[in-house]
Write a sequence for this structure.
């Protein structure tokens, strides 16, 4: 950051080189370069620090695949070829979360083939595994837990959705596991445990009243689909919440480093500050803030006011149009840099102990491995 910035510098290389850090989670608002940051971190960990690294994106955009030279990404890690890791011995792999496929894998792992077939054919499951609110975030936690438990990776870099959705990355697993393990679903499951009788034929008046009330709200077919889904899923009850809690504990452990990603814009910085506060409440390790697209004047000792005044004098003298224009461009950059420092202070004043790394605005969008190397190098420069 500029010299007057109060935040301590973020040592990205120390995080990436630390064998005790196994997971890096990148969070931030949309459009701030979060996916690029995650890919650049993963690439640097592999090339510079020799770590076997996988980057997992939850954002369905194709930017990550394109920047890594891959035609596509899916639910299985794909090795990125052509990286410069011969000397370090590192590897880089990339993948994009497929929430339905991940849900299918969970079902196949925790039940037999016949029950799995029944679940896959159930309309409620088909809708839930594709569109149910919170499913994507829950399955992201499942996938992170799988990658972590496998022990295959030295470092897992997670690129989350925009930050309000990234909060769902923390909240949705608990909500969905409560739903799947919840009292209402266990009540719906009771008929299946009672010998396969229809849920509407139970003799208990209390359940009959409950089923009629729920049927009135949901409709008979949906309730029937839901009951069948729960009955088929009975063998997995308890596992959803347990696995979510295990992954949640991983995110709270010292082996995880959260990196907030923002641009020097008010909304993005406020989002970062909001998320930093939430991480503190959840006792999750916040390693620092990556501030992207920062502008710095080439001659910081020349103020915008002096540059504009000099340009005015040159205009009055005549014959120095190019020099005067260069001074005006410098003044514009200096003024923008000053505004960005003020915006950044919204975060640093609230969280003065959080380290910050600033990445200069690039002349063009990052779309290849060389561009990612440039970003990784910029993040690693400790002022």
């Amino acid at each position: 950051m500029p010299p007057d910035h109060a935040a301590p510098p973020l040592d990205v290389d120390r995080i990436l080189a630390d064998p005790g850090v196994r997971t890096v989670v990148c969070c931030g608002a949309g459009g701030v370069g979060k996916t690029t940051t995650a890919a650049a971190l993963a690439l640097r960990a592999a090339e510079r620090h020799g770590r076997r690294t996988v980057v997992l994106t939850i954002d369905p955009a194709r930017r990550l695949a394109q920047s890594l030279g891959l035609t596509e990404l899916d639910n299985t890690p794909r090795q990125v070829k052509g990286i410069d890791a011969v000397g370090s011995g590192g590897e880089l792999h990339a993948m994009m979360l497929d929430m339905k496929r991940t849900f299918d894998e969970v079902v196949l792992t925790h039940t037999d083939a016949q029950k799995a077939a029944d679940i896959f054919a159930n309309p409620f499951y088909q809708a839930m595994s594709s569109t149910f609110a919170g499913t994507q975030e829950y399955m992201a936690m499942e996938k992170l837990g799988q990658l972590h438990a496998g022990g295959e990776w030295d470092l897992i870099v997670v690129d989350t959705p925009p930050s309000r959705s990234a909060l769902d990355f923390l909240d949705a697993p608990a909500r969905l596991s409560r739903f799947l393990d919840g009292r209402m679903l266990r009540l719906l499951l009771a008929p299946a445990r009672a010998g396969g009788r229809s849920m509407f034929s139970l003799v208990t008046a209390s359940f009959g009243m409950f089923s009629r009330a729920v049927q009135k709200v949901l409709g008979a077919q949906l309730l029937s689909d839901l009951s069948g889904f729960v009955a088929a899923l009975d063998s997995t009850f308890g596992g959803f919440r347990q696995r979510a809690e295990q992954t949640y504990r991983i995110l709270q452990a010292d082996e995880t480093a959260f990196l907030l990603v923002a641009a020097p814009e008010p909304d993005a910085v406020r989002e970062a500050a909001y998320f930093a506060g939430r991480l503190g409440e959840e006792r999750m390790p916040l390693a620092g803030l990556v501030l992207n697209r920062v502008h710095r004047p080439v001659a910081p000792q020349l103020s915008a006011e002096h540059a504009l005044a000099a340009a005015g004098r040159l205009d009055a003298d005549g014959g120095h149009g190019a020099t005067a224009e260069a001074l005006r461009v410098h003044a514009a950059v200096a003024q923008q840099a000053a505004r960005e420092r003020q915006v950044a202070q919204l975060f640093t004043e609230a969280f003065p102990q959080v380290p910050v790394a600033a990445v200069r605005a690039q002349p063009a969008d990052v779309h290849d491995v060389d561009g990612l190397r440039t970003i990784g190098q910029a993040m690693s420069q400790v002022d």
Summary: The chain has a mean pLDDT of 81. The beta strands are 23-28, 52-57, 78-79, 91-96, 155-162, 256-262, 286-294, 356-360. Residues 12 and 62 are 25 Å apart (CA to CA). The radius of gyration is 26 Å.
